[in-house]
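Q: Is it fine to ask for two folds in a single conversation?
A: Yes, each is treated on its own. Send the first.
Q: Here.
A: Result:
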Amino acid sequence: MLGSLENELVALIKGSPLGKRLRKVEPLPNIPDKDVLKRWGTDAPAAYVVAMDGAIEGDTSTPKFVVVFVARNARGATSARQGGKREIGLYEMLDAGIAVLRSTNEGAGWQPTGYQMIQDAAVRDAGMEAGMVSVETAVDTPSLDPEDLGLGDFLEFHADYDLEPLSPDEHERWANEDRNPPSPDVQSHINPQEGP
């Protein structure tokens, strides 16, 4: 559910007139925190989609996301916020982002719920301005289908045997990756696709 909603938000923004004015529109990149600002500075103007905590009430779930917008302008902070003839500014991105997200008639039917300016000295020191728009949608709560758990194929099984069942100290030691004797006498590694 969350992966498809994240992809839907990315596609929605990319396909809009706003998306055509941005260098990057993608899920928040999987990079170390110390490198995020460097990446944002390289990609700006950009938008990143981030999943947040959602809510569940019976058969209805309310997934929540934020879209982080990042602007940069060589002429300074005011130009990064207000934009110019050649470069979109943060305020324009927030306005357009809210409008794009409000106008969805297909897919999840997103509803913007607020916006926030990112007041981080490190962002400003890096010459950027950033803000985010919070959005949510209502979807059916995932339910368990006994025939299909939505999981991939079961590819591998590994088990260790022959620890005394009533020796919790030895079991704890082995579970913590201490392989010194005494240790299990038998190991089994099975690939269900190939058979035992």
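Q: Second one now.
A: Result:
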Amino acid sequence: MLEIHKKIFELFNQTGFEIKADKIDFRFSEKVESQLQDLEIEYEKIREEILSVEKENLPLKIYNDFTSYLKLSEVNDNLNVLILNHAGLPYSLISETTYINFEENAENYFFKNTISFFTFIDFLKTQEIDTEEAFHFVDYLNDVSRKIVFTSLTDKGRLIIKYHNEINHFNENFNITKSLENFMNCFAEQNNHLPKFLKSSIIEYASRYEVNNRIYKVFEELNDITNSAKINFEIYLNNLSIDQIRKEYDEYKSKYFKEVSEILNNLTQKIIGFPILIATTLFAIEKVKESPLFLILLIIVILITNVYLVLLLKINFNDLSYIDTISNQDFKTLKENNFFTKHPTELEIFTKIKSRIISRIKHLAIITESYFWILGITNIAIIGLILLYLKLNYTQIFMISIVLLFTLAMSRNYILNDIENKSVS
């Protein structure tokens, strides 16, 4: 059949022609007449001027350009087509296979999209059923005026979509056929309520466009329309409101952000007061450096401060661990909802919120531990300075500082290991 397409295309290139409603008139030449005979195509010779061929005698449908083919009245079930397209390359359709310049091109969806549009209109006609049932997908369809009416189930309004004999030249690189299949599957018996949501989705999308252009836009956006309907259907099945979830989760986010912020504010106040604390301590040492008793009392106060520091670290890490655990549990409960299992992309906004909470907890944990080490090491250094005033030698001061630093590190590890064990349990 492809060879016949090639030969017929060559035939049209041999001489002038005129494509009429029922026939094609070729300018007479012996070569064209010979080619018609070779192709076994019946023709009528009119004097020595015209070779007239009835279209029904041709082994395929021939169109001069895309415009003459892109009509509902032409597409129908015609699966053997040649579009001459003299402005570009010839297009052929042979048994559902597309050829461009007589070479197969599986990535071109010109014919598939065009036939799918015809199927789409034909399918909508079947949905205008005159029954006493409360729900009709298409409320009214007039094939003479080519008008489709959808009545809203909620707004008590109606939407008119006009279709025409002309078919739009859809994007040849995008396969809309799959979207149509997805759309038509919504009417399967097991999806008994889904068409109601599909109808609302069509009304929502189509109302965005001008009435004469709506049918093409609806067809092009069938995939989005169908997916939107399915999501709303799942919300209905799961008794779920996305807006309500977002509101509740936003409140949840604010609650945890507030708790984390309170910990951060407490730490910030301590960090701001840190230089003042050190300056005050050094000033006190300078004043009492001649009194061993006061120096020993200062060491005791600083050691008590370190104990307080360890307790502060434990409290802060316990709070952060608790917030982290509870926020993860809340998110896990949300994620396991059947709606989000079927539509994981709808979970993205909540995933971003959770990521922000986790990020803030991690940063605050780093700040807390940094403060612990800076204040702890500073206190050990101050104790070393006091010991120097108490006339201890450098070796003794070094050994005592190592012991204090080791004790500080052990306290830190004990606290964090204890918190990790609680989190696991």
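Q: Anything structural to flag on that second result?
A: Two points. The chain has 14 helices and twelve strands. The first helix runs from residue 2 to 14.
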